[in-house]
Each structure stands twice: as C-alpha cells, then as structure tokens.
Amino acid sequence: GLCRPLPLQPADLATFWLVTVWNSSADQRELAVLDQAGVRALQLHPCVVLETKLQAFLDRAWTEGLRVVPQLPERLFDRDTGGCFGAGSDCYDGVRAWARRLLRTSLTRDGVYHPAVEMIWLLREPDASVGLPDGLTATLSAWDGWLDAEQELGVRAGPVGLATLLASAASGGPSTGDAAGKHKDVCYNLRAPHGCEKLNTLRELWSAANQTPGWYAPIAGQGRIRRGVDTGVDGPRYVSHSDLAASIADRWVHTFPAAAAADDIIRNLREYYA
C-alpha cells in the first residue's frame, strides 16, 4: 500500500524509482562488458508515493536492501504544461522552488538525505524533446536550481548523486558518410566540427558545466546578474550560480538509455575520460 502506479497527479512531488540489479540471461554478454568497465546495469521500478507515506516507503526500501531514485515531475519541463521548455529551457526557478518543497519532506532529516536515496534524477531525455543545446541548458539550470535549494535549506549532499538521462549519451562515434567511409583513417580521431567524429554528449556536458560561475564573474552587459543564459558571440551558454564544475566531479552520475549498446556506452565513456 506504500507504492501506487503511474501516472503522477498534480499533488505528487516526484516519481520514486526502486532500484534493482539488471540480471537477464538474454543479456549476459552485454552485462559482462558493462560490469568489466565498472558500469552498473540497473532496472528501475516506478512508484508514486503519498507524502504522508514517504517516510514509511523509504524505511521499507532501506530495510529490504533497495535504493530509491526520486525523479522530478516532467510537467516542470514540458512546454505543454507550462514547463521551462517553453521558456528558453532555463529551468532554474521551477526546479529550485520544487526542490525546496521536496527537500522538506521525509527525503531528508536534520540536513541529511535518507540513506535509501541513491541519487536525484533531474530530467529524462531533454535532448530528445528540445535538442541537445537546449537539453544541456535545461540540465545545467535544473542542476543549478537543485544545488541552490540544498544550500539554502542546509542539506548536505553526502553520497547522493545527481543525474539526467540524456538520449544521446551513448551516441557519437564515426559518421556513416563519405568522410568516415573512404577516409576513416584520416579523420576518425578528429572530433566535430573539425573531423568526422560526432559530438560526444558527455564531453559537451562536462565543458558546459566547467564555465565560470556567475558569483565569480557576472554576465557581461547585465549588471550584477549572477546566473542565466548568456547570449555571447560564441552562442548561448548557461552561466550557473553554483559551482557545477565541482559538482560534476563529485556527484554527477552518467546514465544511459537501456536500449544503448554496451560497446557504445564504453566507447563514449572512454572518450569522455580520455
């Protein structure tokens, strides 16, 4: 009686995913490749939990040896429900306000997350909805809003990670056109836009997170604004309030769609860390 199925109702604060290890006899080869590379293959089972039952739900998950991943409601982002995708994909304000509500529940106590909480799932495939540039802006601004809410409420991160599932996280690699086909030996190792290698989404995320925070250098031409989208000569970029560079090193969890091939996941991770 603690878990009811989707969909979320307007009063629900999050989807709470129960985490179990993916163990399928049909996928043994893929699972072995991922395990050897230190990548966990997980199955997520969705639960919608009443706020009044959240403490009991988290306690039960913990005593049963399960971990929980809260996912923010998609209506915070969906343009059809007035979300931030319809307003330039700057999701800071909406996520910050929602996080302050969620962090005041049994998700935390005395400034510490419940031990059953493994990570916070911010967005689900924003790049599939609004494209990669706006999807990264949405991810960075939602991430920024969550970190600020934690700081304002005195919540310590501990081992709790942060994540966005990006549809293109396992894509990339050589193009299938003429350059990759006839001249692969020349351009294979050259990344976009200079060669035939496609963009690596994880590297794009890392680069975007490592911009100078707004508290250090306000956005040019906008007075003392401390965060937002800077439309500079090199194109728009998100300027965070929090230190996303430290957060991506300490807390960020790379996640991949279940349909992604193990070899593609490993290749993209190797290029990311290269």
Describe the structure.
- About 35% of the residues lie in helices and about 15% in strands.
- It is built from ten helices and nine strands.
- The chain has helices at about 30-35, 55-65, 90-100, 125-130, 130-155, 180, 185, 200-210, 245-250, 260-274; strands spanning about 15-20, 40-45, 65-70, 110, 110-115, 120-125, 160-165, 230, 235-240.
- The strands form four sheets. A three-stranded antiparallel β-sheet has the order 2-1-3, with helices on one face. A two-stranded antiparallel ribbon has the order 4-5. It has a two-stranded parallel sheet with strand order 6-7.
- A hairpin with a 2-residue loop joins strand 4 and strand 5.
- The longest helix has 22 residues, at about 130-155.
- The radius of gyration is 20 Å and the shape is globular.
- Judged by helices, strands and strand pairing, the structural class is alpha+beta
Total beta strands: 9
Major β-sheet profile: 3 strands, antiparallel
Strand order of the largest sheet: 2-1-3
Whole-number radius of gyration? 20 Å
Low-confidence segments, ≥5 residues, pLDDT <50? 173-190
Could you state the order of secondary-structure elements as H and E? Answer: EHEHEHEEEHHEHHHEEHH
Average pLDDT number: 86
Percent helix among the residues? 25-40%
Shape descriptor reads globular
Q: Span from first to last CA?
A: 47 Å
- Beta-strand fraction estimate: 15-25%
Total DSSP helices: 10
